[in-house]
Amino acid sequence: MAEWIRAALDIVLIGLVAAGLVQAARLMRHLSGLQQGRLDMEKFVRDFSATVFRAETGIKTLKQAARDTGDDLEKLVDKARNIRDELQFLVESADQIAERLSQSASVAVKPEDRRTATAPGQKTPSAATAPVKADLEPLDPAPAPAAVPPASRAEKELLQALRKLS
Fold first, then answer.
1. Can you tell me the distance from the alpha carbon of 144 to that of 101, in angstroms, rounded to the nearest whole number?
2. Residue 138 has what pLDDT?
3. pLDDT, tens digit, 9 for 90 and up, residues 34-50
4. What confidence score (pLDDT) does residue 150 get?
5. Dihedral, CA atoms, 19, 20, 26, 31, nearest 10 degrees?
6. Torsion on CA atoms 41, 44, 45, 49, rounded to nearest 10
7. Contact (Cβ atoms closer than 8 angstroms) between residue 94 and residue 162
8. Model confidence pTM above 0.70
9. What is the mean pLDDT of residues 61-83?
């Protein structure tokens, strides 16, 4: 009976060793899978690090481009402001010249040159009783006064425009 017990114990030990070997083989497969996963994770981390580096470089490049573009835009805005100021000056000068031309034209047109509609034999109304029709009567085209010659191209163009209107 002692041999039976020993044989049974040997069989149980052989079974336990076999089960241990099967378990060890499964653990080895899991460990190799984990090791492969670790290698894949290291590769992923390297790739991610390279991607982050490229993104940082791209962000720096974009920031520099934005700064350059902002500087260029600021220069363009400054130029536009300067041009606006110059145009404003030109418009003010043109208004002054037009005012002078208008005054010169009104001085050049004499009241005797205007044609009044009076019937023959009718008295000409006096200045005190005559209605003012200066704005309603068409002006005779008169040449530019000789005393104020046009000094610039803008003045010449304004004179031509005034001649065409009258």
1. 9
2. 46
3. 999 999 999 999 999 99
4. 54
5. 170
6. 180
7. no
8. no
9. 92
CA 84 to chain centre: 17
pLDDT category at 106 given cuts 50, 70, 90 is confident
**Alpha carbon distances (Å) from 42 to 35, 37, 47, 107, 161:** 10, 9, 9, 95, 83
Cα separation, 162 vs 104, in Å, equals 11
Task: Give the residue, 89 or 156, on which the prediction is more confident.
Answer: 89
3-class secondary structure for 47-90?
HHHHHHHHHHHHHHHHHHHHHHHHHHHHHHHHHHHHHHHHHHHH
Cα gap 160→158, rounded to integer Å:
5
User: What Å distances lie between residue 157 and 15, 83, 97, 161, CA to CA?
Assistant: 117, 22, 11, 6
Cβ of 101: how many Cβ atoms within 10 Å?
19
